[in-house]
């Protein structure tokens, strides 16, 4: 058998093996927050806006029960945090849209600059966490970091709308 055919067969075998493990990865990308999960975070967020503890008491109200039900699967647990992050991201985006409506052109530019800097900082922080931890917990810890940082930013953005 020729070298090219052997290489082709190896690549094909690797592709087939990768597809066998794809359902977990696909699930992790497709899971959406339920209306009940959204309501849980939104209600907590609204009730904690003026609280001295901030939204810390609201963090992982969706992710932790979801992770417990996932039974320890790294993909599923990471997905639980990503699902909650999308809820917080929705709250962040809503506050951002509200704030944009209150700003003049110069303030809008400053807000955009601030948000871009925050995104870079959040990404660097959470990706460093994964690089530092490595191993099977890295994805879960990184997903939790993105959730936490997005929640904190949602609170800050909402507070800006109340100034």
TrEMBL record:
Lineage top rank: taxon: Bacteria
Membrane-crossing residue ranges in chain numbering: none
Coiled coil: none
Cleaved signal peptide residues: 1-28
Keyword Signal: yes
Domain Lysozyme inhibitor LprI-like N-terminal: 66-154
Protein name: Lysozyme inhibitor LprI-like N-terminal domain-containing protein
């Amino acid at each position: 058998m020729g070298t090219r055919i052997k290489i082709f067969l190896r690549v094909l075998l690797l592709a087939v093996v990768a597809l066998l493990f794809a359902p977990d990865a696909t699930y992790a990308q497709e899971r959406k927050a339920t209306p009940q999960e959204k309501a849980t975070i939104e209600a907590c967020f609204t009730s904690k806006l003026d609280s001295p503890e901030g939204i810390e008491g609201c963090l992982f109200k969706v992710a932790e029960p979801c992770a417990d039900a996932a039974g320890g699967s790294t993909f599923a647990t990471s997905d639980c945090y990503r699902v909650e992050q999308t809820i917080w991201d929705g709250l962040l985006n809503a506050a951002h849209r509200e704030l944009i409506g209150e700003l003049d052109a110069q303030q809008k530019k400053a807000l955009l600059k601030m948000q871009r800097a925050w995104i870079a900082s959040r990404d660097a922080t959470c990706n460093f966490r994964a690089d530092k931890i490595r191993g099977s917990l890295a994805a879960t810890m990184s997903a939790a970091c993105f959730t936490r940082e997005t929640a904190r930013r949602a609170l800050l953005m909402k507070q800006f709308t109340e100034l």
